[in-house]
Amino acid sequence: MVKIPFHLLNVFGERRMGGCPLVICETAKRPDAAVAQRLAYQFCAPETGFLETRSQSWSAYTPQLALPYSTMVALGASSIAAQIAIGAPTIGYKKNDLWWVQTPQAHARAAQVDNLALAAALGLNPADLSGPLLWVDSDFTQLVIPLRARQHVLQVAPRLDLLMQSLGNPHHLLQIALWSNDGEVLTLRAFTADPFHLQEDFGAGSAAAAIGHWFIANGNTPPFSFRIEQGHTIHRRISPLSVLYLDVDAQRRVAVGGRVWQLGGGELEVDGI
């Protein structure tokens, strides 16, 4: 029987009990993928991270699958690494009460998509789409879709069957980032899709990073930064606002930041590690 300390956090919340729930587990060595997946299922948080305390390496899981990368887990793991005094955090850094992480490099390319079919799949009119649509390829593929106004972001109602048809029925996990630019504040909604499921994401740091790459690919000269609001558009009884911060420096490095709050924690007893 092994006891694993865990921490319940809120990430991207402007205050406690806001933003997105996250669990970070401390481990002496990275658990087997099957064990980590079972633990993530038990916690049933949107994401669960496993922090190897000596190396500060980490891995991320949803209740159903492993993630190749997670900005939210990177931020949470960095804050816990600093708290438990295992050395200076090497995952991210803290500045002005925000935790920041440099996101992976990405490649942006034009999306050859029928705007009429895509708009229908999103419950929008073709005229609601604004600017070029780009695929952003990093650890997984994201389709970045700028919309003309915040109200268009709010009224998005995607249909999985039509969405998959309009995108050529891809056989891999992808994320769709829909956003509007209201000056220095962006409104964002993000959806993760595979051929069988579609879910809306809270605290989509990877989508925020993809928007940074969209700006670079469309000729915007860095440095620039934005505040990104997400979450109040989701029709749920409880949908705390997530606030993400995007910063692109003069070297075109894309960083995503946010506040990290610790709510509590405990120990989990686990067999088979």
Structure overview:
With 273 residues, this protein is of the alpha+beta class. It is built from 6 helices and 17 strands. The strands form 2 sheets. Strands 6, 7, 8, 9, 10, 11, 12, 13, 14, 15 and 16 form an 11-stranded mixed β-sheet that branches. Strand 15 (242-248) and strand 16 (254-258) form a beta hairpin. The radius of gyration is 18 Å and the shape is globular. The termini are close together.
Quick description:
The protein is of the alpha+beta class. It is built from 6 helices and 17 strands.
Straight-line N-to-C gap: 8 Å
- What structural class do the secondary elements suggest? alpha+beta
Radius of gyration: 18 Å
Could you give the order of the helices and strands?
A: EEHEEEHEEEHEEHHEEEHEEEE
Question: Which runs of at least 5 residues are low in confidence (pLDDT < 50)?
Answer: none
**Biggest sheet, open or closed, and with what strands and sense?**
11 strands, mixed
Got a strand count?
17
Mean pLDDT: 91
